[in-house]
Every structure is written in C-alpha cells, then in structure tokens.
Design brief:
It contains 15 helices and 20 strands. The protein binds flavin-adenine dinucleotide. One of its GO terms (molecular function) is glycerol-3-phosphate dehydrogenase (quinone) activity.
C-alpha cells in the first residue's frame, strides 16, 4: 500500500509498539539526542502493559528457577523506580502464610535438587527454604527505603484475622506497587517532551529495507489515512505481536520465537480491612497474590495459560476464574465466590521461547536481538517485566549505540517522570496541600489526583475556586477539566482510555455515565457531529 510521504525527515529510530518497552526505549533514546517516532496501533498500554499484577518486584518465585540475574536487577530497580515516580508507585508489604503442604512446581531446578538430596520432602517447600529465599531477597537488591523480612504471628495481628485458623505463622517482606498503564503514559509524555513523535491509533502495515534505511508504512486507524516514514533503525517492541512483526511486517526469516502465556486477574469487593497483600502458595506449586485495590476492592491473580494467537483478545475464562476463587478460598476464612467478583482482566505475556516445559517455568527475563542482515538494523524485544523496563531500555540503547556511536550515555536513573519530582515520604503532605488549595476536594478525590498526577495535580484542576468551575461532572469525581487534560496531554481519545488506562474509575462509574463520557469526548474530537450527519 502506498501513501503520502508525510515527511522528508529520516528518523534515527522508528519504534513499533506503545507498551512499556516501546515507550521506555523512546524516552531513553530521545533523552540521548536520537530522533524517534513511535507508532502504537491502539491506545498506549492497550495490550499487556495495562494487564499486569502491577508490581515492581524482584519475583521471589524466580529464585527457585535460579534466575538470580533477573531477580537482582529487578530488586535494585524497585527503589530506583519508586524514587522516580512516588505518585504512581508505593511500597507494599506482602504476607506469606506458611503451611507444610506447600509444594514446588515439579520442574524447578530447586525442586529437582531437593528431590535428589532430600527425597523424604516429597516435593514440599520447607520453611527454611522460604526463609533462605527471603534472606536473598532482602540482601541481593541493596535496599534503602523498603523494610526487610519479618516473621508474623497470625494468631495475634490483623494479618491473620481474615485467614483460616490453620495458618499460624507468616513471613512478611517488601515489594512495590505501580500503576502500570499510567507508567506507560508518563514515559510517552516524557519522550515527547524530549522530542519524540508519539502516534497512537497508528498501525504499522509494513517495513522495508531500502538503500540502508527503513521505509515504514503506517495507517491511522481512525481515518484510514496511510503515511510513510523513513528511519535508520527499527525497534520491534510489539509485545505479543513481536513474532508477527518479524515475519509479517518485516518479512525476516529469523528463528527467534515468542511464547504467549495468558494471565488473568479477578477483582472482588474488598475482602479484608488492612493494607497489606497476601502471597499464597498452592499445592500445585504456583503462587497467587491478593492485593488491596483502589481502596474498596481486592485484586487476585494470576494464572498461567498458553495463548495461541495475539489477535485473540485475552479474557479470563470460567476455568481461570474458578481456579482463582478456589485458590483464594483455600486461605480465606470466608470462601470467595463468583458473587464477590466485580471485574476481571487478562493479558498476554510475550515471553522469550526458551523451550521451557510449562508456561509457569518459561523465563521472565528479557532478550534483545539485533538483525542487521540486509542493511538497516532492527532490534527485536522479547519478554521483560514492567519492573525491568528502564534497564531493558538501557540495554536496548547499548545495542543501538553500535549504530549511532555519538549517542549520549545512560541518564534515566534518578530522573523523575512527569509529576514525580517529590520525595517518597511526601505523598500525604501533597494530598493535604491539594485539599488546602482546593477546599472542595474530598480526601478520596485529592488522594486519587495526587496518586495519578503527583505534583501536576493542581495544574490538572487549573485556576478554579469551586467544583462547578471544573465543568461537567461525569461521576465518581471525574470532571471536564480532568478529561480535557487527559485528551490534550495524555493521548486519551475514548471513554475506555480514560476509565481503564488513565484511571480505574470504570470500577465506580455506571454504564450510563460511561456512555455520556464517551459521547462528550466524541463531540470534543469532532466525531459526534460527523456521526450525526451520516
Ligand atoms: C498477567 C500478567 C501479570 C504481570 N505482572 C507483572 C508484574 O506484576 N510485574 C512486572 O514487572 N511485570 C508483570 N508482567 C509483565 C509485563 O506486564 C510485560 O512484560 C510488559 O507489559 C510487556 O510490555 P511490552 O511493551 O513488551 O508489550 P505490550 O504492552 O503488549 O506492548 C506492545 C504494543 O505493541 C503494539 N503493536 C503490536 N503490533 C503493532 C503494529 N503492527 N503497529 C503498531 N503497534 C503495534 C500493541 O498494540 C501493544 O500495545 C505481567 C504480565 C502479565 C500478562
């Protein structure tokens, strides 16, 4: 398909994919002086990067697979990231109840070792091993902010209250929460502020090498308009589509493979009253989390299920839902039932295919491969975690640097994302200050705004004296002023972008309120009038 040659500019990098890896690389590369264009076929973070468990974590369970490099890097990253975005990320404590029935997944290197040398354990995960893992977890990452592991008497504290009486002891350790889709959007905004061109709802149709450059053809998904771009290097950060892009868009015969593993979560009404998370171990060797979510809910997940095709929208199947309900009900006094569920979501992990026997065992580490055969190079991104996105971007830039020798060095560690220029301990002060500046804000509302926009929250509201001046009220504290900010500054186009990826207000708004928001946004974008004329 040919289109109008939009620009004479030859970009240094053309990035396919507006998930966390594409946006993280775009930010890092623009900050180093490279010219960058990024195309995302849907909304930013519309695929895997809004469907994670939302943890900046080392991944305690990966220690059983001896993935020490990945765990160490991720543990160190937790605090680097927390300091750069204290609005959208915060420390959390995880309570791991111990029971002697807990078992390994059969195929982990640790379980094979124990089965050989301590066969009488019969696949059980002993308490000393968990303690050893937590000791490594505490020490590998060089913590400064996050507190270390403690032992909890479940008979005495609030942590034991919602759990069955058979759990008497637990270990408690630290990791961090992150608002995954907002992380992507803030990276995109920062990349744009440093010169990158970010294009959403823009699908890459084909990429061809020509005269040592890439000729990339894209289509605006809304208007159908086709445009051409030229770039010296291509970055394939297509997540679950990475393989499709290699074979279908670039038409390379690379043999690198991706393994698609679906993970589903259920969101229930709030199941308990304290603010800590649970780390539950199953008798099948898997683990799940139960996490306090959006103040009034509990998030439970995840599953590991093979997913055949990225174009099949991932949904939480009945089997996955029942598995999560049964798993959680094995721990909570009050069984968790279908009636408790208010929402479910699913994502597909684009894992590097390392030939592992099961989806649970497939590596969560990332792999970067440059293919320079035939002239212009392409960097293909496989796997990765939200937690390691910044380090992944740095590694990507190491590969890219070979083709752009004058590019500047690493810079992103310690540089805050938009709205994140304050100390981790100052969140409550910021909330109080916002309420002082805008006395009509409730605590819920002020907290929500600070947790989303940080030091930019008062700019989102603007110079107003009362709530009426914020314009139309869409419900659940969402107002016209905020929606305009999201449309003008954060690439939001539809109600879904606003209520599921810029916020989680979808949990609180009615179908009528969402429809009214969507219509209003269409009208602002000029689509409402066009629809009426048809
Ligand atoms: C259930 C689950 C739980 C997880 N939990 C955690 C966790 O707690 N902590 C953690 O650190 N990690 C977690 N992860 C891993 C993490 O979410 C992923 O590694 C990460 O989001 C992958 O980001 P990505 O940018 O590679 O892919 P994506 O976010 O999928 O982005 C790829 C983008 O490319 C776009 N694209 C594809 N083809 C084209 C094209 N032709 N043109 C234009 N755009 C295109 C897609 O639309 C998509 O938006 C979890 C993953 C899952 C599935």
């Amino acid at each position: 398909m040919s289109g109008t040659d939009e620009t004479q500019q030859i970009y240094d990098l053309f990035i396919i994919g507006g998930g966390i890896n594409g946006c993280g690389i775009a930010r890092d590369a623009s900050g180093r002086g490279l010219s960058v264009a990024l195309a995302e076929m849907g909304d930013l973070a519309s695929a895997t990067s809004s469907s994670s468990t939302k943890l900046f974590h080392g991944g305690l369970r990966y220690l059983e697979y001896f993935e020490v490099r990945l765990v160490r890097e991720a543990l160190i990253e937790r605090e680097v990231l927390l300091k750069a975005m204290p609005h959208i990320s915060w420390p959390m404590r995880f309570v791991l109840p111990y029971h002697q029935d807990m078992r390994f997944e059969n195929s982990t290197p640790t379980s094979r070792l124990l089965n050989t040398f301590m066969p009488w354990m019969k696949g059980r995960r002993p308490a000393w091993l968990i303690r050893l893992g937590l000791f490594m977890y505490d020490t590998l990452g060089g913590r400064q902010i996050l507190p270390g592991t403690t032992t909890v008497d479940l008979k005495a504290g609030p942590e034991g209250a919602p759990l069955q009486d058979r759990f008497e002891t637990a270990y408690e350790y630290s990791d961090c929460w992150v608002e995954d889709s907002r992380l992507v959007i803030l990276n995109a905004r920062d990349a744009e502020a440093r010169g990158a061109q970010i294009m959403t709802r823009t699908k890459v149709l084909s990429c061809e090498r020509n005269g040592g450059q890439w000729h990339v053809t894209v289509q605006d998904v809304n208007s159908g308009i086709v445009r051409n771009f030229r770039a010296k290097m291509l970055v394939n950060a297509g997540g679950p589509w990475v393989g499709d892009i290699i074979h279908g868009k670039i038409r390379s015969n690379s043999t690198e493979g991706v393994r698609l593993v679906r993970g589903s979560h259920i969101v229930t009404r709030k199941l308990y009253d304290h603010d800590k998370c649970y780390f539950f171990q199953g008798t099948d060797g898997r683990i799940i989390f139960a996490i306090p979510y959006e103040q009034d809910f509990t998030l439970i997940g995840t599953t590991d299920a093979e997913h055949s095709d990225p174009s099949i929208k991932p949904v939480c199947t009945d089997k996955e839902r029942d598995y999560l309900l049964a798993f959680a009900s094995d721990y909570f006094k009050q069984p968790v039932t279908q009636d408790d569920i208010v929402w479910t979501y699913s994502g597909v992990r684009p894992l590097y295919d390392d030939g592992a026997s099961s989806a649970t065992a497939a590596t969560r580490d990332y792999t970067l491969k440059v293919d320079a055969q035939g002239g212009a190079p392409v960097l293909n991104v496989f796997g990765g975690k939200i937690t390691t996105y910044r380090r992944l971007a740095e590694s990507a830039l190491e590969h890219i640097q070979k083709h752009f020798p004058k590019v500047k060095g690493t810079w992103t560690a310690g540089v805050p994302l938009p709205g994140g220029n304050f100390a981790v301990a100052d969140v409550d002060r910021l909330i109080a200050d916002l309420q002082k500046e805008f006395p009509f804000l409730t605590v819920f509302w002020a907290r929500r705004l600070i947790r989303a926009y940080g030091s930019e929250a008062s700019e989102v509201l603007g110079h107003v004296r009362d709530a009426v001046q914020l314009g139309r009220d869409f419900g659940a504290t969402l107002t016209e002023a905020e929606v305009r900010w999201l449309m003008e500054r954060e690439y939001a186009q539809t109600a879904e972008d606003v209520i599921w990826r810029r916020s989680k207000l979808g949990l609180r708004m009615t179908a009528e309120q969402v429809a009214a928001l969507d219509q209003w946004m269409k009208d602002v974008r000029g689509e409402g009038a066009a629809e009426a004329a048809q």
